[in-house]
Amino acid sequence: MSHARVHVGGADPYDVVIGAGVLGELPGLLGPGARTVAVVHAEGLPEIARPVCGALEQAGYAVHALPVPDGEAAKEVGVLAGLWSRFAELGMTRSDVVVGVGGGATTDLAGFAAASWLRGVKAVLVPTTLLGMVDAAVGGKTGVNIPEGKNLVGAFHPPAGVLCELSTLLTMPQEDYISGLAEVIKAGFIADPVILDLVEADPEGAARPDGPHTRELVERAVRVKAQVVSADLKESGLREILNYGHTLAHAIEKAEDYRFRHGHAVAIGMVYAAELARRAGRLPAGVVDRHRAILASVGLPTSYAGEAWPALRKTMTIDKKSRGATLRFVVLDGVAAPGRLEGPDEDLLAAAYREVAK
Q: 4-171: which CATH architecture?
């Protein structure tokens, strides 16, 4: 099966390999000098972790599978400390490698475990969810949660390589797959309109992991993220466009105690940002309508509870993406023309929210 290779530039360049039947490419991403490989995987994914371990064993590595809890429960300091103890038992040196297999939470944890072990060892990530492939695994952000908040403890630690084995997507629950599509569609709105065309041409196919354009959609979304993070690893400027829809999304997630799917929150957040731009006189109404139509066509939500606004507004002020007290939004001046809206008027914020209120 053919596969794609997307190069991520910057100070620590690496490749993202995308395709079905590409596990054989994994050993080539580890680089020279490694003997021991710790495979950190979500415990609910033994059927995916086994072939990963097998491919590495065949290549001659000493492989150790280290299961961690599924989902966000993995991103806890106690789980991280447990991994450090295992790394010590395995005698992992600076030339050894951590391989993370699972969704975004698992790859975030594995990446941070690698970043913090011996002040940094190589991490190779094998994301198994759509959100993990197009968002979490590319870009070098790693971290864990503490009771005071999500992702407050972490490091920028670009992986040595990322392997997107598309067959793993077939094991995902449909709702989770659709949630991940929100980040794909986001990449379309901020940078690559072909993504939007592909979804509009076949929304039903786009909503399935075995759809006709899955590889192209994943590859295009990864390319968008790769181009942005190559130019700006640490969010000093350009990378901010990846937060399109995320200012309101983070507030919704917090209001829902993080039991709300990330992609669902981002979908609502994008409609909100589009309405904000329209009311600020920057975005034509037709593009706002296109947001709603594309998102709804694949089964993503476009509205949220009206009475939630005061609480959401308060939460947005303390989001870690806002600089000081000024609220900043990524908005569009057109498809693939992102810009910023700084310190918008309270009336404007409330009026735009009324457009997404149920």
A: 3-Layer(aba) Sandwich (3.40)
The CATH architecture to which 243-356 belongs is Up-down Bundle (1.20)
What is the pLDDT, as a whole number, of residue 322?
Answer: 53
Q: For residue 100, which of 168, 28, 49, 155 has the smallest C-alpha distance? A: 49
The question of whether 145 is a catalytic residue gets the answer no
pTM of the model: 0.95
Taking the chain (358 residues) in runs of 10, the rounded mean pLDDT of each run is 88 95 96 96 95 97 98 97 98 98 97 98 98 93 93 95 97 96 98 98 97 97 94 78 96 94 98 98 98 98 97 84 75 97 95 96
Say what the pLDDT of residue 317 is.
83
d(CA 23, CA 1): 11
Active site residue 122: no
Q: Decide if 3 is catalytic.
A: no
Q: What share of the chain is helix, strand, coil (3-state, %, to 5)?
A: 50, 20, 30
In the set 243, 253, 291, 328, the catalytic residue is 243
DSSP string, 74-88: GSBHHHHHHHHHHHH
Give the pair of three-digit tokens for residue 12. Answer: 């620590």
Instruction: Kindly name the residue from 47, 119, 307, 342 that is annotated as catalytic.
Output: 119
CB 201 within 8 A of CB 231: no
Which candidate in 122, 141, 157, 279 is catalytic? 141
Instruction: Let me know the angle formed at the C-alpha of 21 by 43 and 26, rounded to the nearest 5 degrees.
Output: 65
Catalytically annotated residue among 43, 200, 216, 235: 235
Question: In the annotation, is 5 catalytic?
Answer: no
The CA angle 292-348-338, to the nearest 5 degrees, is 55
Catalytic residue check, 213? no
Active site residue 220: no
Q: Is 119 in the active site? A: yes
Q: Where are the domains of the chain?
A: 4-171, 243-356
